[in-house]
Amino acid sequence: MALSGFSGQFPDSKKQTMKIKFLLLSFIFIILGCHKEDKNVPTYNKGNLTILTDESFKSVTEALSEGYMINYPETHFKVQTKKEDLGFLDLLNNKARIVVMSRSLSKGEIKAYEEKVNLKYLPARFAADAVVFVVPKSSAKTKITMEEITNGLNSDDKNFIFDGTNSSNLNFVAEKLKKQPRDLKFSIISGNQNIIEQLNKYPDKIGVIGLNTLSRPYDKTSEKLREIVKILPVENKGKAYFPDSEGLREMNYPFTRVLYFLTSEGNFSIANGFIRFSCTQLGQMIVQKEGLQPYNLYRREVQMR
Predict the structure, then answer these.
(1) HEC string of the chain?
(2) What is the mean pLDDT of the chain?
(3) What's the CATH fold of domain 128-256?
(4) pLDDT exceeds cutoff 70 at 56
(5) Among residues 168, 122, 128, 59, which one has the least CA distance to residue 264?
(6) What whole-number distance in Å separates Cα of residue 152 and Cα of residue 159?
(7) Keywords in UniProt for this one (predicted)?
(8) CA 159 to CA 232: how far, in whole Å?
(9) Could you report the per-residue pLDDT of 68-88, keeping only the tens digit for each?
(10) What CATH number has the domain spanning 47-127+259-294?
């Protein structure tokens, strides 16, 4: 059996050396050519990404994206606010690569995600947030019970103010009460911040907003908003729970919700790179600085000598 390219005589050492050099140069050119072809392929450390998020947790999403861009200067993020349900539909219809979610998906929605995106449903959880109930600082009200919430959302008085239909806050409260959002009765003021700023005009009403609107400890806007309203602890079975770090960490506060990412990206590119970053210790420190509870707890070890 003859081997292709073998003439039956051994070449001298000079010819052999030249042949090796030629093969090496050819190999280098091939590698360089492949590298050149891959230059425009998006990777985790370069490229553009739009993140869809409900307005209620826009702040933590922006903080995480800024942290990622600092670590990878060739990445460019745009955080776009969109009602939670509409953002999920954009993901299904290939109009978005990543979306932030808080409510649980139904079996039908999970099936639609897996069929349309062609990926296994694996929510990337990164923070514990909450839906909170607020009243003006001047209000005599000091707490709210689960019964008041349930009865109030079935009353024609519409004493609860949400930031709109299809919003994460409305969806989550409906889910907790085992209701459909369309079955609840409520008033609407568009935007969490607008609810806080206009609540004094409606002293008998209760605002329902995302905790992240108020939770940023060093943010001037949050500080200003915290001076206008107070958060009501929620009483459940005779015990009042507050959406503080303990209430979120132990999920004792009845309206604690877990934020998570969903992506349509099947490879390890910029969206999955961002998700991984958000779940690492550095990303979780950013979540904590936003006044929310990190989902992944990292044990700190101090060695004493």
Answers:
(1) CCCCCCCCCCCCHHHHHHHHHHHHHHHHHHHHHHHHHCCCCCECCEEEEEEEECHHHHHHHHHHHHHHHHHCCCEEEEEEECCHHHHHHHHHCCCCCEEEECCCCCHHHHHHHHHHHCCCCCCEEEEEEEEEEEEECCCCCCCEEHHHHHHHCCCCCCCEEECCCCCHHHHHHHHHCCCCHHHCCCEECCCHHHHHHHHHHCCCCEEEEECHHHHCCCCHHHHHHHCCEEEECEEECCEEECCCHHHHHCCCCCCEEEEEEEECCCCCCHHHHHHHHHHCHHHHHHHHHCCCEECCCCCCCCCCC
(2) 88
(3) D-Maltodextrin-Binding Protein; domain 2 (3.40.190)
(4) yes
(5) 122
(6) 7
(7) Signal
(8) 15
(9) 999 999 999 999 999 999 999
(10) 3.40.190.10
- What local confidence, expressed as pLDDT, does residue 64 receive? 98
* Average pLDDT for 231-248: 95
Residue 132: Cβ-neighbour burial (10 angstroms; 0-12, 13-18, 19+): buried
| Other beta carbons within 10 Å of 81 | 15
Distance CA 132, CA 134 (A): 6
Listed by start position, the domains of the chain span 47-127+259-294, 128-256
Q: Tell me whether domains 47-127+259-294 and 128-256 share a fold.
A: yes
pLDDT digits (tens, 9 = 90+) for 128-154: 999 999 999 999 999 999 999 999 999
pLDDT at 296: 86
The pTM of the full predicted model, rounded to 2 decimals, is 0.83
- Tokens linked to 73: 């200067």
* pLDDT tens-digit series, residues 32-48: 444 444 555 568 999 99
| Tokens describing residue 273 | 């790179």
Summarize the confidence of residues 181-193 as an average pLDDT.
Answer: 96
